[in-house]
Amino acid sequence: xxxxxxxxxxxxxxxxxxxxxxxxxxxxxxxxxxxxxxxxxxxxxxxxxxxxxxxxxxxxxxxxxxxxxxxxxxxxxxxxxxxxxxxxxxxxxxxxxxxxxxxxxxxxxxxxxxxxxxxxxxxxxxxxxxx
Length: 131
Known about the structure:
This protein is mainly beta. The protein has one helix at 103-110, and strands spanning 2-6, 9-11, 17-24, 30-38, 45-51, 57-59, 67-72, 77-82, 91-100, 120-121, 125-129. Strands 2, 4, 5, 6, 9, 10 and 11 form a seven-stranded mixed β-sheet that branches. A four-stranded antiparallel β-sheet has the order 1-3-8-7, with no helix packed on it. A hairpin with a 4-residue loop joins β7 and β8.
């Protein structure tokens, strides 16, 4: 499995960015794509995830109402629309994948994101929110 995040950049507070995660190589049609971020000197944290077969999503409390995750299965791409950005959103953003062969497990973990479920990781993209 390969994943590649893109779309980061420098934006002013209150601005928007859309990150993309292009992926390939899943052997199952049931997979979860998640976004994580890590700021300098801080632990990596979960941001959001989305399941492959329905609209199940999960968001961290810190981004609810500001970030929106979506997918385009035809393009094998997951997007993270980030609005109303704050300086504390500054971090390297990574996308990661978790694969399942049971749709019920996918639904469970897509609605309750757990970092340990994600085995495949892509390189990150830097997001900097600053005036």
